[in-house]
Amino acid sequence: MSAPFPIFDLSRFEAAGLADRKALGAEVDAICRTTGFLAISGHGVSHPTIDTVWSKAHDFFDLSIADKEQVRAPFPGYPYGYLGPGAEALAKSKGEDTPPDLKESFNGGPLAVPEGLTDPQALAFCYADTIWPRKPDGFVEAWKAYYRAMEDLAARIMRVFAVALDLPESFFDKTIDRPISALRALNYPETTTPPIPGQLRAGAHTDYGSLTILLPQPGSSGLQIFTPEGLWREVPPVDGAFVINIGDLMARWTNDRWVSTLHRVVNADGSAARRQSLAFFHQPNWHQEIACIPSCLASGERPRYEPVLSGPYLMSKFQATVKPAA
Fold first, then answer.
1. Residue 89 above 70 pLDDT?
2. Rounded CA separation 274/188 (Å)
3. What is the domain partition of the chain in residue ranges?
4. DSSP label at 88?
5. Per-residue pLDDT tens for 279-297?
6. Three-class SS of residue 233?
7. Is the pTM of this model over 0.85?
8. CATH for the 7-320 domain, from 2.40.128.110, 2.60.120.330, 3.40.50.620, 3.40.50.2300
9. Which residues of 9-45 are buried (b: 16+ CB within 10 A; e: fewer)?
10. pLDDT tens digits along 31-56
11. CA atoms of 274 and 103, how far apart (whole Å)
12. Which H or E run contains 106?
């Protein structure tokens, strides 16, 4: 029998004194050393904010193909707008050549360009325009409200992470004050026939950034993580909570003290009902150097990775997943 999926009460941490915060941080450190996946309860994101964006995303995916195509990403590698079925194969980010994933998505980036930013790569990629749909009514407003709520929640979780890593609670604040995060609404259409060999709803991959905040459909199944024991384990939706996992940049930042765990979305027995989720991919500032955190380096030990810049690293990983134009 596997251990219960860990649930961390963020409100308890935020109300705690210094000693209790350190003890709670140690709990998060232990989780992130093994799988880096946990549920966050007590997050304070309002039900209307969640319910509205959820219903608007559902209604968007219910639109006709012609309507959704009006906001399709204009070329392979463009990060925002609609990506239809067959546009992406996430396993390719890990060097595995697989068929395209069985999903469609709508993707949006930062809501504003930071004042004074002139880097052409940043402007062309992370700060490219989100291609907004005109239908359903209220979609854009709901999306932006949820995006802002996720930015705030991610910053609060990063303070927990700082405590867990024996750092000042504000350690990450300056690294994420102009984050290049993206929000993705995902729809996995109903399937009634077996997929082609090697095809999944989302191929096995790790996320690229600091952390991901996932809102899975209540009662859904199919999200699996690859455990340290070498087994695929189901990640259950937790009522009223978000599923959090760390990404590759956080693993690099911590010199692999924390793990960025391989995960996937499967089609059980070749047949599965429609499934929806919302994923917020939190990413440090474009120019932020990601180098080994001193508290994660033992005496006499050398960093396992050369420093990288957050934005260019993200761009290279994303473009590896894109299906080339025919």
1. no
2. 6
3. 7-320
4. B
5. 999 999 999 999 999 899 9
6. strand
7. yes
8. 2.60.120.330
9. bbeebeeeeeeebeebbeebbebbeebbbbbbbebeb
10. 999 988 999 999 999 999 999 999 99
11. 10
12. strand 104-108
